[in-house]
Amino acid sequence: xxxxxNKRDAKGKNKVDKLRVKGEVPGVLYSKGEEAKLVSGLExxxxxxxxxxxxxxxxxxxxxxxTVSVLFKEVQMHHIKNAMVHFDLFExxxxxxxxxxxxxxLEGREEVKVQPSSLIQVLNEVEVTCLPKxxxxxxxxxxxxxxxxxxxxxxxxxxxxxENIKIDIDxxxxxxxxxxxxxxxxxxxxxxxxxxxVPTVSETEEDAE
Length: 209
What we know:
Elements: E1 3-7, H1 13-21, E2 24-30, E3 37-42, H2 43-53, E4 59-63, E5 66-77, E6 84-91, E7 98-107, E8 118-121, E9 125-130, E10 139-142, E11 151-153, E12 166-167, E13 174-179, H3 189-196, H4 201-208
Parallel strand pairs: 1-4, 2-6, 7-10
Antiparallel strand pairs: 1-3, 2-3, 4-5, 5-6, 7-9, 8-13, 9-12, 11-13
């Protein structure tokens, strides 16, 4: 899906509010060596693209008939409603390396064979540097066969070892670990005795009489 945006000269709260009344969201397009451009787009289209692409997928936009490749740089959402308030994009030079934070996905986390167990994800994203055409949308590690005490590290990610992608973090950094589930602490004997001596409402009322 190509996202169609409009150039805007709307600065100030009143003008931005008028955009939002029309179902549009204000944004900024950044391009290296150029002045930032004020843009806007339909919120429903922006939400769909952001849901599909996130921060680590390159997609195309059209502004005044010109098509460029971009990434989301920042997205501001309303703190209560599922509404986009503002967005920033930056234009991608397909011939220049870029550094992007890529989400870490624990594949098979709902199918871990050792049960009961508790799977703890330590690393939620990794920064990678590469040419845009090699940019992964995510970094995956399979956890289905993990045993209690096992640790998955950056070296276990599917993108590790790809000569076209540099991972900007130590290979031994922990990604996830499988541990025994934490048991709820049983109340101590003294605590049980104290709680048993607390009078009920009816007992209190009888004493008062």
